[in-house]
Design goal:
alpha/beta; globular
Length: about 280
């Protein structure tokens, strides 16, 4: 059965590769619209947050815009070829490396904004420092294997969250500064791992893992800001190493939430609105 499932997945991907990008985008978006992909979740998030201040064309227009971009992400993941990497630009890598070497390791906070998959997986191309992506394994093993292959083909080391402490200690013993990427705009799995911050006008639960790692290992932190271009695979990734948590009372988590909200305010449709971000109430 495993071999059959693998054959189906491989065949499907090969067939998809033959479809022109424009047509595949249209078909993907049409399917998402027809099935009403997560419309209720997106509607609830739209109405319960301050996104309406930033997007004034109403929910129906917002929903279509968000699905249009989500279709683009899907196409970019399944149609990616190595030649496309030249379109993804990174800024301030020198500052990132300096901050990482300074604290013998660095936590790079990313989010589900723009194409986070491409932004994270391509970082190792632009730095000699080892890069680790902390991830949660998918339930479907075949899709999980495919995503791991896609994410790691440019040198990104993937580790489950439960193994990050062991990895940090091993790298420290070997005097090996490394970048640890955490996508932190997710709903915490446990009430014991919650830290609260104001985000989009709502008191929002964030995972406390990044804060604990930064404080425990005295790491510097940085924020990955993804700018979306007009064409497929066209992104600019700005690495912000200027933290305001050192000299103020602003927490690491609130600083991250505020940075992400600033991006969303500029172009709300590029964030992943389809996940159940606000399962927990304060």
């Amino acid at each position: 059965m495993d071999k059959f499932a693998q054959l189906i997945l491989t065949t499907t991907l090969k067939v998809v590769q033959l479809i022109p990008n424009t047509i595949l985008m249209m078909v993907t978006r049409l399917v998402l619209v027809l099935v009403g992909y997560r419309r209720q979740v997106i509607n609830k998030n739209f109405n319960n947050t301050s996104v309406q201040q930033y997007y004034t064309k109403g929910f129906d227009h917002f929903y279509r815009s968000n699905l249009r971009f989500f279709s683009r992400i899907i196409v970019e993941i399944v149609k990616y070829k190595p030649i496309q990497k030249s379109k993804i630009k990174y800024k301030y890598i020198d500052q990132l490396e300096s901050k990482c070497n300074e604290s013998n390791g660095l936590i790079l906070l990313a989010s589900h904004y723009g194409n986070w998959e491409l932004a994270c997986s391509h970082l190792p191309i632009h730095t000699d420092l080892p890069c680790y992506g902390v991830y949660k394994p998918l339930k479907n093993q075949k899709i999980d294997q495919y995503m791991k292959m896609q994410r790691s083909k440019h040198g990104l080391n993937l580790i489950p969250m439960k193994k990050i402490g062991r990895t940090i200690l091993e790298n420290r013993r070997n005097n090996k500064p490394a970048i640890y990427i955490l996508i932190s705009d997710q709903n915490p799995n446990s009430k014991n791992s919650i830290i609260w911050a104001d985000f989009l006008g709502v008191n929002t639960a964030f995972v406390n893992g990044p804060k604990k790692l930064i404080e425990k290992y005295k790491f510097n932190e940085a924020y990955m800001e993804v700018e979306v271009g007009e064409q497929l695979f066209d992104y600019t990734v700005n690495i912000n190493t200027e933290s305001n948590t050192k000299n103020t009372q602003t927490s690491i988590t609130q600083s991250y939430a505020s940075a992400l909200e600033s991006q969303i305010a500029n172009a709300p449709e590029y964030w992943l609105w389809s996940h159940k971000r606000w399962k927990r109430s304060f």
